[in-house]
Amino acid sequence: MSHEPTDAPARNALIGIGVLFACVFAGLALAAVFSGVFDRSAPPALHRAPAPPAPRLEVRGGSDLAQVRAAGARRLATYGWTDRAAGLAHIPIDRAMAITAERGWRDAEAAP
What is the dihedral of CA 106, 109, 111, 112, to 10 degrees? Predict the structure, then answer.
């Protein structure tokens, strides 16, 4: 008696079993690797950059800007000495614009 010629070759069945075994082995290997690599009990250590050197320019967000703007507004609205020894003073911006409108703009080349 002979075998039927329509049967699948045994070699193809062994290859299929080998591929199935390789897939199962790869899945188990990945599960083992990832369970050991990713330890979920402790959070990862974060790298913190050192604090910038002094001076720390803004301590409270926004309040320093408000102080700078208020000081600028006071200087633009008041009279005062910039350098008393040199005879330099500042005047309100409205007064400076009125003087410039009356006298005109002084030429930079004609200035001493």
Answer: -170
